Automatic annotation (TrEMBL):
Organism: Nocardiopsis lambiniae
InterPro entries: AF1862-like_dom_sf (IPR023101), CRISPR-assoc_prot_Cmr5 (IPR010160)
Any Pfam family hit: Cas_Cmr5
Superkingdom to which the source organism belongs: Bacteria
Gene3D superfamilies per record: AF1862-like domain
UniProt protein name: CRISPR type III-B/RAMP module-associated protein Cmr5
Subcellular compartments: Cytoplasm
Amino acid sequence: MSSVQRLDQELSGLALKILGRRVSKDLRTRMRQLPSRLRGGGLAATYAFVLSKADPNPAKELGYAYHQLAVKIAEHVCHRRLLGGNGTVLPPKRFLEALSSATPAQYARACAEVDALATWLSRLADALHEPAPPANTTGGTDGADSDPNTVEGDHG
């Protein structure tokens, strides 16, 4: 059996690693905005935005997703040597510096690859988002109707 993957398979798997198995309303919204943010502002500006929102604390779902996004983009682009280099993964802030010194051809290849990843993130965020159940109108709950995949504060 071959271990060769199509690029879209690789990117869909990477998107799943970034998002996890459950996507809140806020995370879905942010991931749906990512492709247009990339196309409108460019990769360097979007990556700087992602870094500004990143938080390595897994308890902070949205910040952690941005953290994972920053790390995984840098890993992916570096492994594929889209910015030149020897395949060594750069930490996110060094990756941002590398974007600023890339040749136009390197930058364009990295942009195209990250744009394809952003499209997968948007699609998967929609697919993995599970809306919260409607509020119980009887005034109380026995827990039978609660959704174990819904995080407090996720209303939608």
